[in-house]
Structures are given as structure tokens and as C-alpha cells.
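Hey,
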Amino acid sequence: MADADPVTKPSDASMHELEDAAKAVRLQARKTWLTRLALAVAAAALLYTLWYLLIGRNHVSTDNAYVNAEVAQVTPLLSAQVLSVTVSDTQPVRRGDILVRLDDSNSRIAYAQAEAELARARRMFRQASATSTSLLAQVEARRADIARAEAQLANARADYDKARIDLDRRLELQPSGAVSGEELTSARKAFAAARANLDVARAGIAQAQSSRGAASGELAANQALVSGSTIETDPMVLAAKAKLEAARLDLDRAVIRAPIDGIVARRQVQVGQRVAQGTSIMTIVPLSKVYVEANFKERQLRRVKPGQPATLTADIYGGDVEYHGRVVGFSGGTGSAFALIPAQNATGNWIKVVQRVPVRIELDPRELAAHPLRVGLSMEAEVDVSGD
């Protein structure tokens, strides 16, 4: 059997050449990869620069934005027991819909009392008007009494003058004895009686004048109550009307109605519960009038102004649904400034924290109707500042 050919082994030189060739291939591949990476980075930087110059610098965005609304707090305006509750949480309501009925027994009693007081005020005005007519007649009667007293005074004065003349004549005749003592005595009595009657007549005039003054005063006082007024414009009647209107208002307030259109939320009232005046019993959220409160960093607001357009997306619908709106205004301070416990950084231990300012953005009502939002949902907002 013939011997086999021996295996030819490569020389050391050949091995080195192969290793150098493989190393050169790897270096070339790495150089090609690095070149491509550099080109990709340069292209990305160029694209970013172009995007920033054309779009980015004219837009500011934030994902720190949330849906908000001017919610309506439903509070009873009187304290009473709840008879019925006609709505529940998540239920849509229209303005004027009945939400809660309260016990109105006390209100009905107060209303009946107010009606009675109004009727009494009107009766008192009519009575005062009739009294004025009666007092006017009394004043006229007192005038007649004065005229009669004056006539009586004139008569008494005439009798007095006659009695005085008779007495003087008899006194002149007394020394001659032509007048008896009895006749002189009678003349003196007649004179005294005439003088007394004159004093009585004068007192009668004073009394009649005083009576007329009293009647005139009563008439003036009564006229002050009714002068320039009618039964419907009398102050007492107006006060009674106001009280009746207040009672009617309390009676109407026993039925609590929805103040706005929206969705019922946070209902906190049950049948049989006694609610206190001013206590919140439920909230109504107007979903058709929600807005977005976007918290932008303070440096982002250099070019943001009211009226600028904004584009928004909601996490609940994703990026496929876009909302369009406009910047309405800015908050009066940063979010931390209105915190329950504002941050107080001591001197020497201060680290600057970028603040955020709430910006209110109103949304298109038609887009809201097509894709309703709820208060508190997360949003992403982007404001176009190219028109500043």
C-alpha cells in the first residue's frame, strides 16, 4: 500500500497576509459605518435645523395640559327636608330641569301670612282714605260751631251792653229816690248775668276754635298717610307686597332646578336628608363649554399672546383626533403661587425651579360636540406663535 501525500500547511507569511487583509476589511467596514452614521447625524441635524427654522421656533407645546370647565355648584337657598331627587350622577340635564324637591310646608304658611298682611294693608289704606273724608266733615262742623259761638258772643255782648246801660241809668236815678232798692238789685243781677254770659260765649268761641284745630290736625295727619298714594303705591301696601314676593320666592326655591346645561356630577343628597342653606348638594359640568388649561414653562411664553391659534390632542382619543382653539388669556400667577402652601426658599439655600403659567385655551364647539371631553382629562397643546 502506497503512502498518502502529506497535507500542505500554509506558511507563517501567508497567515500574516490573511490577517492583515481581514483587518483591512474590518477597518474599511467600520469607516464606512462611521461615515454613514456621520451622514445620518448631519442629515438629522440639518432636518432638525430646517424644521426649527420653518416650524419649531414658531410653535410652543406642552403635555402639561388638562380639560377644565366653569362648573355650577347646586346649593339650596333655604333649609328644608328633601322630598325627592330626580337626577343621578352622569345624567345629562337641561337648564330649568327639576333636580330636587324640598318640603315647602313652612314656605306655604309664610306665603299665606304674607297674603293676609297684604290684604290688611290694603284695608288700612281704604280705612285711612275714608277717615280723611270723615275728618274733613268734622273740620267743616267745627267751623259751623265757631260761627254759632260767634253769634252767641254777639248776642251775649248785646245783652251785656243793655244790662250795663240799665244799671248805669238806675244808678244815676238812685239819689233822687226814683229807683227802688229792689229794682237796683235786679239791675245789678241782670248785669252780672249778662257779663257771665259774655264770658261763656267767649269761652265757647275758644273751645270751638280749639276743636277745629284738633280736627284740622287729625285731618292733616291722616292726609299725610294717604296723600300722593293709591292703594297699590301706599308704603305699607308696598312693604306687604315685598314680603309676599319674598314668601313666593321661598316657595319657588323649594323646587331646585338646573342652572345650566350639563352633566350631573358629585351628587351628595338623598331623599329624607335635611339640607342646609348654601350647602353644595351636586355639581353640573357644562361639557359643551369646557376649555383647556395648558401649563407652559415661563420661557415658552415670550411670544405667546391672546388670540393665537392652538392645536390640541387628547389622550382619550389619541393623535388621530385634533382640536383647534385659540388662546384666551393667562393666569394671574404661576401654579405654585396659588398653591395651598406656596414654596418659600430660604436665602442661601435657593435652587431655581422653572415655573409654569396656566394658559386658557378655548376649543371649537363643533369639535367638542363631535368628540366630547371630560373635566380633568390630559391634553397636549401646541400654540402657533408665527403671527406675533
